[in-house]
Amino acid sequence: MYRIKSCSLLTIALLALVACHQQPATTESTDAAPPIHAAIGVISEPCAVFYAPDSNKLEKLKQENGEEAYYALADDNETCIEDCHAFLQDKTLKTITAAGGKITFKHQDGGTTVINLDDEKYTWEVFFFDGKKVMNIDITDIESEYKKLSI
């Protein structure tokens, strides 16, 4: 009788261990994965591309301008970007938000324009693309900039 109890207990203990054992999560290498901002790729249709700096650029701007000036600059630019979004919502122009990296605009004539948003000169930007040319617009005057766009 003692032998049957110990066999039963051993079997139950083994089943409990097997049932509770979790496989380690498999991790996939991201070495070959494209950066997150590479998803935009090539733009070939008329649109407006919005760009705001990432955390690294923001930190650099804070260091360059001082904390007080940085917050005023960031607040003003974010407000302008929001106003641009609101204005373009009623228009038929497609809008795209870029996270950084290189954006390639393919022109109707076969030419291309490549913009590297990781360049330090780009902070809060809106680019209009009408199929023929790329325009970096003045975000403080979206209405008159939109009138210049010939779509």
Description:
With 151 residues, this protein is of the alpha/beta class. Helices cover 40% and strands 20% of the residues. The protein is built from 4 helices and 7 strands. It has helices spanning 2-20, 55-65, 67-89, 142-148, and strands spanning 42-43, 47-51, 94-98, 102-106, 112-116, 125-129, 134-136. Strands 3-2-6-7 form a 4-stranded mixed sheet, covered by helices on one side. Strands 1-4-5 form a 3-stranded mixed sheet, with no helix packed on it. The relative contact order is 0.17. The model is unreliable at 24-38 (pLDDT under 50). Residues 1-21 form the signal peptide. This is Lipoprotein. Keywords: Signal.
Write a concise synopsis of the structure shown.
The protein is of the alpha/beta class and 151 residues long.
Please outline the helices and strands.
Blueprint: H1 2-20, E1 42-43, E2 47-51, H2 55-65, H3 67-89, E3 94-98, E4 102-106, E5 112-116, E6 125-129, E7 134-136, H4 142-148
Parallel strand pairs: 1-4, 2-3
Antiparallel strand pairs: 2-6, 4-5, 6-7
Helix pairs in contact: 2-3
Signal peptide: 1-21
Keywords: Signal
Protein name: Lipoprotein
Main sheet characteristics: 4 strands, mixed
- Helix/strand/pairing category: alpha/beta
- The number of helical segments is 4
Order of the strands making up the biggest sheet: 3-2-6-7
What is the end-to-end distance?
Answer: 91 Å
